[in-house]
Amino acid sequence: MRHMNPLIERERRVIPNVEELFEDMAGAIRFSKVDLTAGFHQLVLDEDSRSLTTFHTHKGLMRYKRLCFGVNSAPEQFQYAIQQTLQGLEGVRNIADDIIVWGKSQKEHDEHLEALMKRLSDSNLTLNPGKCQFNVESLSFYG
Known about the structure:
The protein has helices at 18-24, 47-50, 74-86, 106-122; strands spanning 30-35, 55-57, 60-62, 92-95, 98-103, 133-136. The chain is of the alpha+beta class. A hairpin with a 2-residue loop joins β2 and β3 (60-62). The two termini are 28 Å apart.
């Protein structure tokens, strides 16, 4: 992608930081963290963009159908796409492929988590179960 990256017109998007999340989570007592499997590869590339990812292999020319690592705009595009997917959900935020869910009560947490799972399922996004934590009093999030 190093030859393509200088040609990409990037849309600058702000990636939130953990301190911003702390304000939103004030008073929360229950938390869950989910991790999206294979991050960038969950996003389908627009048909017109696929040809830009063409590369040569011993089996001929190949191209990506999904967002690939190495594209200089991938992190902000991925962040934006996931934010758009989660838009409108309360008690749910993401930084990259890490999504945190919280609630000020057990009931509120469970409602937020259920809404997230439905949204992810409806959007055909999959989780990495080995990196998820559910229904805990504290956790490490995004480092």
